[in-house]
Amino acid sequence: MQLPFRLSPSVHRERLPVSLYCVGAHAQHPVDRPAGFPVMQCFIAFGGRGRFEFSGGDRLSIEAGQALLLPADEAHRYEPFPREPWLLGFVGFEGPCAPDIADACGLPLRTAFSLKETAAPAAALRALWRLAERADPDAARLLSARLYDLLLLLGSLVAGPAAPAAPPRARQSDAALERAVHYLHEHFAEPLVMSNVASAVGYSVQHFQRLFREAYGEPPLAYLRRIRLHQAAVWLEEDPRASVSDTAGRIGMDPNYFIRSFKQAYGVPPGRYRKDKGP
What we know:
The protein has ten helices and ten strands. The radius of gyration is 20 Å and the shape is globular. A six-stranded antiparallel β-sheet has the order 1-2-9-4-7-10, with helices on one face. With about 280 residues, the chain is an alpha+beta fold. It folds into two domains: about 5-155, Jelly Rolls; about 175-275, Homeodomain-like (Arc Repressor Mutant, subunit A, Orthogonal Bundle), CATH 1.10.10.
């Protein structure tokens, strides 16, 4: 599917609760947006795999069958993984009710969420793209309605509660890295220092971090955080009586930082996640 970037001709012509700004789908090249994008964006991966990076160094990977919603004006950059063509669909949208509508549709911000299927979103994206070529007076309202339908569709296709994926497998074999990953899994609740982990497997910290990122698509600290949050989610589901503070302590995180990180990864605070997953 190749839909060249198309800016809606109705942008700013009519004030609607939610309006289409742009739409498209193509093999993605690296994009750097240090000032962010002027409107909310929803990305849908139809093939391949790529990564997003945000200010502060946070990263996440998006692969075929996953989607991502970003707020307006948030600095970010994104690019495909080497030798992995990344077919990425996107819609930009705005309006006084845009954030609330996306939230009401069940779409979490800044979190990669899996879709049950992508055929219907692909068809909806094509319909939006064709309609965005029109410049007649009715186009803006029709685009708003079709955009709302797409957001509802994506919300209905979210494959369960939004959650960070399990830590990825290495894309290349390296015995030292495998030992390091095993160490992270075994000692994730301890106050780990990456320079010590690197030394334990025979690497300088700079070399270790570079090799780890090449193999796993993210730095070791992000991988460690993913392990901790994944384990916390398991414990919250298994023991609904456990407090959020106790769960944070079990994975070696400060409670306030744990709550912020969990909400960013899962789309809901840990207490709400536990309630939603309970019997």
